[in-house]
From TrEMBL:
This is Uroporphyrinogen-III synthase. It catalyses: hydroxymethylbilane = uroporphyrinogen III + H2O. Transmembrane segments: none annotated. Catalyzes cyclization of the linear tetrapyrrole, hydroxymethylbilane, to the macrocyclic uroporphyrinogen III. It is an enzyme of class 4 (lyase). The keyword Iron does not apply. GO terms for molecular function: uroporphyrinogen-III synthase activity. Pathway: Porphyrin-containing compound metabolism; protoporphyrin-IX biosynthesis; coproporphyrinogen-III from 5-aminolevulinate: step 3/4. It comes from the Bacteria. Pfam families: HEM4. Keywords: Lyase, Porphyrin biosynthesis.
Length: 244
């Protein structure tokens, strides 16, 4: 049973991103006059594949973490590069990968990426370094359009149990919580056995995270049309303002 003692002064938003990704979210929250409660609920555990695939026609990234983890494993070998969305593409470009293909912003998920790759790269050999928790849709759809897909696991996202006590305290007095992946939703499920307190607004970065969240909680939430931090935080502030 949740008991809260909330005094509304400024918008307080729990930032659940992994430790190395807290900064940009904090900056976006603070730029609007809010308070970012930095509280990572997951951590990234790098994994080295059992084998290293040979050169491919395309190199495909579906997260900033996959870019960082693959970069430490093998340098770019001249493949064309496709990314799931702008943030991942920005990270890939910064890491030295020349990105040539993105799905439209409103289709920045595995389904959207599979659709553009099947149009542009049907029958190609594709290298897809991925999370251990990646959904199977991308591999399945690419195989269906004749692609040969190598999908080595290069990292996993694991719940940080040390966050439990503080998370239970902070959700009582925060206004909102930011969720950037189904893994973050899963972590909150594990760390909060009583669920979220009813007043807490959730911000989900995209459709897949939204699906994970609504399967767990009935709390009010918002999700931007395109997966963008600034837009998501703006939506949270608008909803919180309309509720006061």
């Amino acid at each position: 049973m949740w008991k809260t003692n909330r005094e509304v002064t400024t918008v307080r938003i729990i930032n659940t991103r992994a430790a190395h990704q807290l900064g940009p979210v904090r900056k976006a929250v603070e730029s609007r006059g809010g308070t970012s409660i930095d509280l990572p609920v997951i951590r990234i555990a790098g994994k080295r594949p059992d084998f290293l695939p040979g050169p491919a026609d395309w190199l495909v990234f579906t997260s900033v973490n996959s870019v960082a983890q693959w970069r430490r494993i093998r340098p770019w070998q001249g493949e064309k590069v496709a990314c799931v969305g702008k943030k991942t593409a920005d990270a890939a470009q910064a890491a030295g990968y020349p990105v040539t293909l993105l799905p439209p912003g409103t289709e920045a998920d595995a389904e959207g990426l599979a659709a553009v790759l099947c149009r542009e790269a049907s029958g190609s050999r594709i290298l897809y370094p991925r999370s251990a928790r990646a959904r199977p849709v991308l591999v399945r759809e690419l195989a269906a359009c004749g692609c040969e897909v190598e999908a080595p696991v290069v990292y996993d996202t694991v719940t940080d149990p040390s966050a439990a006590g503080r998370l239970e305290r902070e959700v009582q007095n925060a206004d909102a919580i930011l969720l950037y992946s189904p893994s973050a939703v899963q972590a909150c499920m594990e760390l909060l056995p009583d669920g979220l307190p009813p007043h807490l607004l959730a911000g989900c970065i995209g459709r897949v995270t939204e699906e994970a969240f609504t399967s767990w909680s009935t709390n009010e939430y918002c999700v931007p049309e395109e997966p963008d931090t600034e837009t998501l935080i703006e939506l949270l502030f608008e909803k919180r303002s309309s509720a006061t």
